[in-house]
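Subject: for your reference before the review

Hello V.,

The reviewers asked for a structural picture of the protein, and I figured it would be easier to keep everything in one thread rather than splitting it across files. Below is the amino acid sequence we used in the manuscript, unchanged from the supplementary table.
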Amino acid sequence: MLKEHYPDWRYGPPASADMIADAEAKLGVRFPDELRALYLEADGVRENHGSASYLLPLSVEDSMVSLTKTLWAEWEGFRPEFDLKPFIFFGSSTSDELWGINWKQPGQVIAFDHHMEGAYEFVGTNIVYVYRADFTQFKDRFASN
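And here is what came back from the structure prediction:
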């Protein structure tokens, strides 16, 4: 799916179904089908020229799992009324915002940064759309420099 549109990006080897099941068990959630499909394509995706880590790997020290658990715990303790637990944080944008997908209601992708102080921004209905929008913005900025 992604390799067809972005052949120059850096892709990890596909995640196995067992790796995905292990990550789901550690988080106590079921991945939305879209996120599952991306991990079956690659366990980690980075674009070539910037800092975006579009899909955090499962295999590197539980990168995606650790980030998600940390955000859940951090904000639960800091601002209990601000609930990030419906979101699995799977990647980051070129501007270092973290992206999360709602595992309870797939079709909700958010951007979040600590500087947003207890808020997040709805950025799309699917992950690939969010990637496209971010990469296009980055590509345009890169071309203008």
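For the response letter, the relevant points are probably these. The helical segments are 2-5, 17-27, 33-41, 63-78, 127-144. The chain has a mean pLDDT of 86.

Happy to draft the paragraph if you're swamped.

O.
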